[in-house]
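User: Run a structure prediction on this.
Assistant: Running it now.
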Amino acid sequence: MTASAIIMMLIGLGITWGGAAYCISVAMNKQQK
């Protein structure tokens, strides 16, 4: 694998996990209210 392919994979994982963490935080905030 080239460095660019590894970087693109890490960016993709970051976006995926970031979106999941955001959805979880929003759900937690809705439950607290």
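The first helix runs from residue 3 to 32.
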